[in-house]
Amino acid sequence: MSEAAMGLWGERPMVVIDFETTGQSPQGGGRATEIAMVRVHRGEIQDHFQSLMFTGVAITPFVRQLTGIDEAMLESAPAAAQVMAQALEFAHNCGLVAHNAAFDRSVWAAELQHAGLAGPTLPVPEFACTVRLSRKLYPESPNCKLGTLAQYHQLPAHGRAHRALADALTTAELLLRVQQDLAQQFQTQLQDLPVSHELLARLQAVALPQWPRCVAGYVQSVRRTQAQIDTSQSVLCADRTQSAC
């Protein structure tokens, strides 16, 4: 595959995102208290970003006990808008992933909106969801809670659950396992192609019996894109050669 095509399909990093919040949904006035992001690229965890974030919204007693985060810890934290600007930069040109992505995607969208970083030209991207993928890929697991899946796969421990960085690192480990298992399951169809964010998004949207057809469609799309890029590059090279004559 050409370098340009790999840039579109295989070489784009993924960033796992995990939020801790005040306890209410964004629609109910809830705000984020902590964010962690873990960059995964070429089968490895490569970098991370983590920060508490101050919004001034009270934390519910249940969440205070669950996460260990209280209002006193947030008094010296940077403003949420500042943290989200850093987070947006960290996630630039990456596919986004979360465990129970519907929740984290809604918080991501709401916090970007609060920070003035969202708008018609910045739509909220699709998240790959390790819950949706695991339900289909690991039906033997007792459930799809992050802690249960971590035990099921004997993933490395990364600290206290329900803190953003620990959960994001565990989700990143789970993501790597999902990629590995899908690459093995569809090795013949994928050949040299990676299990990309695009493929994960496609697979989570369809029922398990449709996965082989979904993978075939993904491979066809990649090959078609590869052919178009290679043709464009050939034409460009030919033009440059003629100009030099």
From TrEMBL:
InterPro entries: Ribonucl_H (IPR013520), RNaseH-like_sf (IPR012337), RNaseH_sf (IPR036397). This is PolC-type DNA polymerase III. Pfam families: RNase_T. The lineage of its organism: Bacteria, Pseudomonadati, Pseudomonadota, Betaproteobacteria, Burkholderiales. Residues 13-184 form the Exonuclease domain. It comes from Roseateles rivi.
